[in-house]
Every structure is written in C-alpha cells, then in structure tokens.
Write a structure and sequence with these properties.
Strand content: over 45%
Radius of gyration: 23 Å
Largest sheet: 5 strands, mixed
Shape: elongated
Strand order of the largest sheet: 1-7-3-4-5
Distance between the termini: 70 Å
Helix content: under 10%
Structural class: mainly beta
C-alpha cells in the first residue's frame, strides 16, 4: 500500500497485523520504503490460537500484532510479505495503518546574561 502527500516531517507509522490463523504458526515480513527513507523491515510471528484480545503488542522480530517504523518523508510504501506457516496458507495481513506525527523535542533556551566590568563600560 502507498501513501503520498504528507507534510514533510517525522512520523511513526504503525502497521497493525493479526491473522485469524487458528492452530497454525505463521510469520511475515513488513517493509517500508519511500523518498528519503532507508528501506527498513520488521518480522512478525503470529503464534497459533492467538487472536487480538484488546492488547497491542509490538513485534520486534517476535510475537506481536503491530510494527512501528519511524520515518521522515512525504510519502511511503508498505510491503507485506508472507513468511512461513505450519500449513499451506501463508499470508501477511495488514489490518490497519496509523500515521502519527512525532512531537518535536522541546528546546530550552535559558536567559542570556551579559556581564561587563566597570572598566569595560568607561
């Protein structure tokens, strides 16, 4: 899937993934590419009998139901590639995508102080 026309800034892109895989163990790979993005991928393990129960768990090469990519770009493409399965039905579901602008870091600028000696003022 592709997204374009975003304002240029930093984003967290969440890809939600969870298949109704019953008693089957499945894996998948999710990748993000685009202008000014270094191609990045994340692997997800979907264990048997584990469907979404209301709790989000980030998959970082492990079991989970979402992956997060941090990008700075105006456009991107997500590619979902099936991996292995304990049956013949390999798949890599995308249940949803969320694009969240990253809050800018606050920068503290303290008061500036000028110090002059009496001699310098004369």
């Amino acid at each position: 899937m592709s997204v374009a026309g975003l304002p240029s800034r930093e984003y967290d892109v969440y890809v939600y993934t969870d298949g109704d895989n019953k008693g089957y163990y499945r894996t998948a790979s999710y990748a993000i590419t685009g202008p000014t993005i270094t191609a990045t991928s994340a692997n997800v393990i979907d264990p048997p009998y584990t469907n979404f129960s209301g709790t989000f768990a980030e998959a970082t090469g492990s079991s989970g139901n979402y992956v997060r990519f941090r990008i700075t770009s105006t456009a991107f493409t997500i590619t979902a590639t099936p991996g292995t399965s304990t049956n013949a039905n390999v798949r890599a579901p995308i249940n949803g995508v969320q694009i969240v602008p990253v809050a800018s870091a606050l920068r503290f600028r303290g008061p500036s102080v000028s110090i002059f000696s009496e001699r310098a003022r004369r």
